[in-house]
Amino acid sequence: MDVPCVRVDREAGETTRRELADADLIADEYEITVEDGSLYIPIVDADAVSTDLEVVDRAAPTRETQTRPADILGYEPSYERLGEAALLDEDDDERAREIADAIVASDLPLETVLNKASKIKGETRVRDWEVLAGEDTEVVHREYGCEFALDLAEVYFSPRLATERHRVAEQVGKRRHSVDDERGNGPQGESEHVFDMFAGVGPFVVPFATRGAECVGVDVNETAIEYLRENALRNGVEDRITAIHDDVREVAPAYEGWADRIVMNLPHSADDFLESAVTIASDDCVIHYYDIQHEDDPFGPGERAIREAADPEYAVCVETQRVVRSYAPHELNVCLDVRLERP
């Protein structure tokens, strides 16, 4: 059976394997294979892999010592993994329970099986779940060395953005030093100030804090903020994260001119909050602005909105335009890394 695999040169194989393992993206039920100088690493979700990596469909041998759900069912079920939970999207109740029973009976390290019971809804973007196996909807997810507890029925969380979050996290701390060097001052040892306007349970700010940044995370979902505080403790960065339950538009005046970096991951309506982002921005600030737009012009609307909000206080430079993933037919989830600098 063909499965999605990351193809990488053997020399870079171990580094890539570790990165995929840290993101919980390796399909453990299949063997990693080598052919013609390339390593083929089976993965659980092609959409969650960085666009910098090559993904191919390829026949992969199964691990002989492991019983898979497909071995029990006689067909390959579709599900997403999050921590020790399997997430289904099945309309047929009988088929959903059949798959859940097979997952539990298999050798996979999955103790909970949940089936989507509603669309994403409301201001906090949560959905209902049916618990088919396990006790509840709380899971612990590991991502690039960090650990996140969350309740899927109470908070929004997308494991498919793991690679994107890691991409942004790798930039934290580098900009401040490079800017200091340009000014002839050298690194000053001051922590970068990062503000996440829609922080959720902390998948951006927790890894930022592990890199030494001082972070503020705001969210209107009180449960998400409770999990953010718990996750800060889990990862030993509680002293570098301020978690605030509020509408960020109410919080922004208290942090005027504070942020060196701002994350705006609310792609359906981030433009409504750009005035607050400009308030929070320091004299030299990078905004990671997430948007969903038609494929004919995925970046233009976001860039125009940012320029309009920042003018005339800031010069605007779009440093990166990136397609994060396909969101719907002809619609793309994109990110613009935009630098605001006071003239």
TrEMBL record:
<feature type="domain" description="SAM-dependent methyltransferase TRM5/TYW2-type">
    <location>
        <begin position="79"/>
        <end position="342"/>
    </location>
</feature>
<dbReference type="GO" id="GO:0052906">
    <property type="term" value="F:tRNA (guanine(37)-N1)-methyltransferase activity"/>
</dbReference>
<dbReference type="InterPro" id="IPR029063">
    <property type="entry name" value="SAM-dependent_MTases_sf"/>
</dbReference>
<keyword id="KW-0963">Cytoplasm</keyword>
<protein>
    <submittedName>
        <fullName>tRNA (Guanine37-N1)-methyltransferase</fullName>
        <ecNumber>2.1.1.228</ecNumber>
    </submittedName>
</protein>
<dbReference type="InterPro" id="IPR040601">
    <property type="entry name" value="Trm5a/b_N"/>
</dbReference>
<dbReference type="InterPro" id="IPR056744">
    <property type="entry name" value="TRM5/TYW2-like_N"/>
</dbReference>
<dbReference type="Pfam" id="PF25133">
    <property type="entry name" value="TYW2_N_2"/>
</dbReference>
<keyword id="KW-0808">Transferase</keyword>
<dbReference type="Pfam" id="PF02475">
    <property type="entry name" value="TRM5-TYW2_MTfase"/>
</dbReference>
<dbReference type="GO" id="GO:0005737">
    <property type="term" value="C:cytoplasm"/>
</dbReference>
<dbReference type="InterPro" id="IPR030382">
    <property type="entry name" value="MeTrfase_TRM5/TYW2"/>
</dbReference>
<keyword id="KW-0819">tRNA processing</keyword>
<keyword id="KW-0489">Methyltransferase</keyword>
<dbReference type="InterPro" id="IPR056743">
    <property type="entry name" value="TRM5-TYW2-like_MTfase"/>
</dbReference>
<feature type="region of interest" description="Disordered">
    <location>
        <begin position="170"/>
        <end position="189"/>
    </location>
</feature>
<dbReference type="Pfam" id="PF18093">
    <property type="entry name" value="Trm5_N"/>
</dbReference>
<dbReference type="GO" id="GO:0002939">
    <property type="term" value="P:tRNA N1-guanine methylation"/>
</dbReference>
<keyword id="KW-0949">S-adenosyl-L-methionine</keyword>
